Every structure is written in C-alpha cells, then in structure tokens.
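G., the chain you wanted modeled:
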Amino acid sequence: MTRHADIPRPIRSGIVIVDPERGTPQRVIVLQFNPDTLERSLAPQAAGGGGEGGESGGDRNEALRLKGPAQETWKFTAEIDSTDQLEVAAPDGIHPQLAALEMLVHPTTAQIRENSRLTKKGAIEISPIEKPLTLFSWGSKRVMPVRLTELSVNESAFDVNLNPMRAALSIGMKVLSVSDLPAGHRGAELYMAHLAQKERLAGMAAGGGLGSLGLAGRDLGAGGVPRGLGAGVPRAGGTGSGTSTAGRG
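Predicted structure as tokens:
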C-alpha cells in the first residue's frame, strides 16, 4: 500500500546519548512503537518541609516557597517486536535493541577495567563511573535530560535458537533538573530549555474567570472573604457559635 504524501510521518519517541562536553549525539535509540500511556509524577520541592498526611511542619513563612524545580519522574512500557518482520534477517533476534537499552544502566567494560587498574595501583579514592548525558525525547515539546531508574524486561517470544523476538520493557526515568546537575553542565542548560517550553505552553492556556467559581465581584485579598466561604466562621469579637452573620446579603 502506498503512503499518501499529505499524511505526516509519525514522530517516534526515543533516547539520545549525548557527549556532555561537545553536545554531539553519540547514539539515538528510537522506540519501535510509541507507548500507549505515560505515567508522570511531579513532587514539589517545598522549602517549608511540610509533613505528610496534611500535617503542617516547618517555618510558616516558608509555606509558599520552593527550593527548586519539582522532582519529576516518568514511567511507561515500551514494546519491541520482530515477529512481524521475519522476512528480514535477524540472526540475533532483538538482542541488539535490548542490549542498547540495558547499557544505559551498565558501565562499559573499559570503565570497569580502568577502575580495577586504579585499585591495583593503590589509588585511595576511585570516582564513581560517570555515564554520558541521556536525553528523552517525546516530540519537539518534551526533550529533557533523564536518568534511568527502572528497567524491567518481559520477553515473551523466542526463535529456535532462543533469541528473544518480542519483549515489553517497563522503563522508569527521573528528569534531571538544575537541582541535580552542576552549574554550567550541558544537561542543566537543556533542562532550562525544557522548563522554558513549559512556561510558554502554560501561557497559551485559556484563562478562566472568577465567575466560573461563583466568586465574581469579590475581593480575594485581606478581609475579602467571598460569599459562602465565611459560613460558620464567627466575626471578630463574636461568641464563636456556629451561627454567623458573615456572608448574609
């Protein structure tokens, strides 16, 4: 079946391995199928240190302050399937695709050998192995530095040589913000671009009005309790009973 020229080619999601010094892509891992669902979680970095379960804690003056960007995590399921492409020679099945993703959480053999060499030479301190900068791309409006926090593989089909032919991967990622990366790091700059994109999109959202909330014509500043919100709250100097004149017309 021929493809109509006016139908846009779908954009794939994927992972880009970037040289943090030069900023050049070292490898691009394109997901075969875009996940059907995404689970995203944002945890605010509150300066007040409020307790869990709604309990207050910390300095009241810090209740509305943030220490930095929210901690954001992503979870999704990626699928790899070569069973519908059996006419294409694949002597290793989907081993290469799986290995490319798994190497995102493994150090290389060269890095391990180098650390072993330094240990044998009596180096007092061995720095943890640093991986290249990893970006996750979900369309042009979501490109962000990430660190893989979870990679679970469920293989469900094999060829006669037991090479995997189909697999589902549960992938968890933490978005790396300026709170996670050193100042001047290329990843920090890319996160700032990602955050600026959020700001632009937020500015495009249609704003509502107080009338939609039943608060039209009310001053929400100090002393301006909207109609209905003062019910049951005694006025200053009142008796504190459940009956209050606040909010009466």
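The longest strand covers residues 66-81.

Shout if anything looks off.
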